[in-house]
Amino acid sequence: MGNQEQTSTIDTPHLDSFRAVVESRRSVRRFTDTPIPDDVLRECLRLAMLAPNSSNLQPWEFFVIDSPNIRAKAVDNCMRQNAAKTAARLIAIVARTDNWHEHAKQVLREYPLSPVPKKVKDYYGRLIPLEFVRGPVNVLSLAKWGVTQTHRQLKGPIKSPYYTLEDIKQWATNNTALAAENLILALRAHGFDSCAMGGFDEPAMKDLLSLGEHQHIVMMLAAGERADKGIYHPQFRFAQEQFVHYV
Ligand SMILES: Cc1cc2nc3c(=O)[nH]c(=O)nc-3n(C[C@H](O)[C@H](O)[C@H](O)COP(=O)(O)O)c2cc1C
């Protein structure tokens, strides 16, 4: 198809609404006092968790910081950014590196077909553990690396497994960031706005929320109703040609 203009003949019943949601989303740094109702937030979180995710292992968590004491300290940890100060809801969006095994078992327990197909059982029971397991101090990773390299040279392409905790952190972060974007768009579709924040003190925030070494805060999300002057700058992006490569 390349970059030639094509006229789509596909039926696109949601296109206008989708465009309206995406194009009206902005990072909002000041919110009104209007609360986000619990049922709206719940629905937005449900939509967030419909995001595509690797092997359906769902390595994400959402900490909705409602307690006033924790909230005050969380705002400090967000460097007292206006978005955090004025948000109706402040949410820590967290990637987990330790629950892939438990979730693989849970997929089999909650699988929507009965009996669970053998292929699915093998995938979650054998392949997933092989892909993720590292052993103490990554002792098994060297063997995994050797097997993978040999396969690549002798038999052809093979997906690299995860060798280090850093690899798994990257994997969990990828998945969680997709859920974060769904959440941001779901809020917008409900008439609310948000500001993703990377400008926060992660160790301090983890302490505050009692998070462990296997929980990584991918971003903080401030959410609420857009206030007048809540948007600081006009939106712009660089030209598509700078980023898109047809190969
Ligand atoms: C991962 C991430 C971290 C961000 N961190 C902050 C932040 O700490 N403070 C802030 O005001 N905006 C933050 N932003 C918002 C960006 O500045 C904003 O998305 C960008 O300027 C484009 O503007 P737009 O979202 O209105 O299109 C962040 C956005 C992302 C995706």
From TrEMBL:
SUPFAM superfamilies (UniProt xref): FMN-dependent nitroreductase-like
**InterPro entries under this entry?**
Nitroreductase (IPR029479), Nitroreductase-like (IPR000415)
Q: Where is coiled-coil annotated?
A: none
Q: Domain Nitroreductase spans what residues?
A: 23-224
Q: Which UniProt keywords apply?
A: Oxidoreductase
Gene3D superfamilies assigned: NADH Oxidase
Q: Which family does it belong to?
A: Belongs to the nitroreductase family.
Under the heading PANTHER family, the entry gives:
NAD(P)H NITROREDUCTASE YDGI-RELATED (PTHR43673), NADH DEHYDROGENASE_NAD(P)H NITROREDUCTASE XCC3605-RELATED (PTHR43673:SF10)
> What name does this protein carry?
Nitroreductase family protein
- Which organism's genome codes for this protein? Psychrobacter aestuarii
